[in-house]
Amino acid sequence: MFVSLRALGFIIFAACLMLPLWSLPAAGDTVRLRCGNAEVSVSGADSREQALICDAAKGAAEFLGTLGLTRAGAVEIEVVDQIPEGLKLASGCYDWRVDVVSILGAENCAAMWGGKEFFRVPYERDIYKSFAAHEVAHAIAAANFEGFMPTVTTQEYIAAVTQLGTMEAALRNRILAEFEGDGFDEASEISLLYYQIDPARFIVECYRHYAKHENGPEFIRRLMRGDTVLSDGQIYLQ
User: Fold this and answer.
1) Strand residues in 22-67 grouped as ranges (E)
2) In which element (H, E) is residue 222 found?
3) CA 131 to CA 119: how far, in whole Å?
4) Per-residue pLDDT tens for 12-30?
5) Is residue 91 classed as helix, strand or coil in its secondary structure?
6) So what's the architecture of 13-225 in CATH?
7) Does residue 60 contact residue 136 with C-beta atoms inside 8 Å?
8) Quick one: DSSP state of residue 87?
C-alpha cells in the first residue's frame, strides 16, 4: 500500500516511493565513487561521509548475505542536503522506482538532531552509520522478495533488524538497556502504526523479536517468500 507518511514528526526512515518523483532530489553531475570492492557506489559525499557510509553498507551487505539476501547490481547511494519535504524528520529513504538510496550528509543529519536523542542515547557517528545501514537494507531486500510487493511493515522489520544487527555491540547494548521489553511475541503485534508512533522502540522490539531462538533468519526467510505477512493495518495520515 502506497501512502503519504506526513506523520507524527518522528518518521525517521521511510520509502521515497511514497512521494511523487518530481519531489525527489536530482543527482545532477555529481561524482559517483565505489566503496572499495563492495557493490556500493556513493555520490555527493565528502571523504568522511563516504567512509562512514561505505562501512555501514558493507556491514549491511554482510549481515543480509548470511541470510542469503544479495543483489546483482550495485546499491546506489546519494548524499543529499535535505530529504524531500513529504518525509518529516527523515534521515534517509529508499526509492524502489529508481533503486536509489538518499541519505542526509553527516553534518546535516547531526544538525537536524541537535541535542535530541533517537535511541535515547546521544547522537554520534555510529548512529549515523546505522541510518545508512537501514536504508541499504531496504535496497538489498527489495531485490529478493519472491514475486510480490511486500508491506511497508515487512520492509521496515528487515531494515530494523539490519540496523541494530550491524551496530557495534557496546552501542547496541546501551540502546537496548534504554527500552523495557523483550520483543514482539507474535508477528501480528508488528504493525506500521507502532512504527509510526514510536519508530525507535519499533526497531528495538523488532531486533529483540528476531533474536529469539524461534525466529531469527528463518523468520526473515518466511517474510521474503511471503509465507508470513506483516500487515500494514491502520495507517496514521496527516
Assistant:
1) 32-34, 40-43
2) helix 216-225
3) 12
4) 445 554 444 334 444 444 4
5) coil
6) Orthogonal Bundle (1.10)
7) yes
8) S
User: Across the chain, where does the E strand assignment appear?
Assistant: 13-15, 32-34, 40-43, 75-80, 92-95, 100-104
Residues listed for the chain: 238
Question: Helix crossing, 125-142 with 47-65: angle to 10°?
Answer: 50
Contacts 24+ apart (CB under 8 A), 46-49: 46/105, 48/106, 49/79, 49/105, 49/106
pTM of the model: 0.85
Q: Are 92 and 102 in contact (CB under 8 A)?
A: yes
Of the spans 95-104, 119-128, 201-210, which averages the highest pLDDT?
201-210
pLDDT digits (tens, 9 = 90+) for 32-73: 677 876 678 899 989 899 999 999 999 999 999 999 999 988
In the chain, the amino acid numbered 69 is: L
| Residue 222 CB neighbours (<10 A) | 14
Domain boundaries, the chain: 13-225
Rounded to whole angstroms, the Cα distance separating 190 from 197 reads 12
